[in-house]
Amino acid sequence: MSTPIRLIVGLGNPGPDYETTRHNAGFWLADHLADDLRTSFALEKSFFGMVAKSRLGADNVLLLKPNTYMNRSGQAVGALARFYKLTPEQVLVLHDELDLMPGQVKLKQGGGHAGHNGLKDIQAALGSPNFWRLRIGIGHPRTLGLAQQVADFVLHPPRRDEQKEIEAVIDRCRAVVPAMLAGDFALATRQLHSGNES
């Protein structure tokens, strides 16, 4: 067993203008997980974001949606991790992933940030790349046959068929979070990746 996850961070941009955009896939999953853990988000200014708290036995489980823009996500993650004395290994970041098609998802620990500004900032704030990432596929404009620039693409809502695929992935992610909260990443990975073939 590995170190169980104690802080789950959904990445996105705050405000109604961004709510339905691809870049906010991490927020969408975080909202569902708050429901699953029977908690709700409240603004905590000292942590630069919306925080939801739940208990698992004697431990706190924290959910965070940074209130900064994507490229400053580390400010909130760093503040919360320091306050609760969490290691990078106890942090799970939920984010949109251009390199995976809608309907695909990958769980991994560590690695680079592939130009994802939210991940880059979190890595800097935690001083380590060793946090876990749930990469929610949104596709890439090129692989989806779109002429859009990436920056424009991530700030638009998915097309209806893509949205359905992303929602199915979010449900699969919800199903494996209990294993991650228990520190059983092998089980979580097996369950999660078995759906990628479809």
TrEMBL record:
One of its GO terms (biological process) is protein quality control for misfolded or incompletely synthesized proteins. The active site is at residue 23. It holds the Pfam family Pept_tRNA_hydro. It comes from the Bacteria. TRNA binds at residues 18, 69, 71, 117. It catalyses: an N-acyl-L-alpha-aminoacyl-tRNA + H2O = an N-acyl-L-amino acid + a tRNA + H(+). Keywords: Cytoplasm, Hydrolase, RNA-binding, tRNA-binding. One of its GO terms (molecular function) is tRNA binding. Its EC number is 3.1.1.29. Gene3D superfamilies: Peptidyl-tRNA hydrolase. It is found in: Cytoplasm. One of its GO terms (cellular component) is cytoplasm. The record marks 96 as: Stabilizes the basic form of H active site to accept a proton. PROSITE patterns: PEPT_TRNA_HYDROL_1, PEPT_TRNA_HYDROL_2. CDD domains: PTH. Monomer. Belongs to the PTH family. Hydrolyzes ribosome-free peptidyl-tRNAs (with 1 or more amino acids incorporated), which drop off the ribosome during protein synthesis, or as a result of ribosome stalling. Catalyzes the release of premature peptidyl moieties from peptidyl-tRNA molecules trapped in stalled 50S ribosomal subunits, and thus maintains levels of free tRNAs and 50S ribosomes. This is Peptidyl-tRNA hydrolase. The gene is pth.
